[in-house]
């Protein structure tokens, strides 16, 4: 069933720990797209957790209120399901390019870590939960950065989430790297400590190549 989902468009995702520069890059890409459209069918720039939606609000409330980690996982999954059906699949079915700031790999990496020790083989459990129904990205950029550097960057932006701790983010980073090793054809690992201009160039080249 999943092979048929959103077949005509292309799905690109940005993944990485907090403060790795994903949203900065999404805004840059959006600007490029405004002056020189990346796809002739149009582009949609989106994110997970979603904002201003019922499921997105539930996710942020869960993060702020320290709910049970398994309950939190299912809220993130509910948000992903709603995001897929409201935004991602309709755009892909219309042949558009969809670029999402975070997607399923964030669940495998983050909830694989929050549930580590509570559920046996948590990382694979979370990955498997997505398999029967989601739409895999065509291309994923992993923003690779030392957690010490990303936490330093996050300090400047006010409210911090409970996830923004160096030790926790080291575990999340290891999970992201495991995902990239499993699917080397889908993942492009970026040095997120480099200048944004450098990474923007790599990203644009790769996106243009899959749209050809
Ligand atoms: N390549 C970069 N080099 C230095 N600082 C950066 C870079 N990219 C983003 N930043 C800064 O780091 C902070 C976190 O970036 P942000 O894009 O919000 O990360 P994320 O969306 O991954 O959490 C912001 O203050 C941003 O201006
Ligand atoms: C999408 C997603 C995000 N998260 C976490 C990462 C962030 O710490 C937090 C909020 O996401 P986000 O708003 O993307 O954070 P940031 O802009 O700081 O990168 O939720 C998960 O734990 N699992 C998920 O599936």
UniProtKB/TrEMBL annotation:
Highest taxon, organism lineage: Archaea
InterPro entries documented for this protein: P-loop_NTPase (IPR027417), Thymidylate_kin-like_dom (IPR039430), Thymidylate_kinase (IPR018094)
GO biological process: dTDP biosynthetic process; dTTP biosynthetic process; dUDP biosynthetic process
Enzyme class: transferase
CDD domains from the UniProt entry: TMPK (cd01672)
Taxonomic source organism: Methanimicrococcus blatticola
Keywords recorded for this protein, A-Z: ATP-binding, Kinase, Nucleotide biosynthesis, Nucleotide-binding, Transferase
Record EC number: 2.7.4.9
Record carries keyword Transcription: no
Gene Ontology cellular component terms for the protein in this record: cytoplasm
Keyword Nucleotide-binding (UniProt): yes
Binding site for ATP: 16-23
SUPFAM superfamilies linked: P-loop containing nucleoside triphosphate hydrolases (SSF52540)
Pfam families xrefs: Thymidylate_kin
Thymidylate kinase-like domain ranges (all copies): 14-201
Leader sequence segment: none
Catalytically driven reaction(s): dTMP + ATP = dTDP + ADP
Molecular function per GO: ATP binding; dTMP kinase activity
Protein name: Probable thymidylate kinase
Family: Belongs to the thymidylate kinase family.
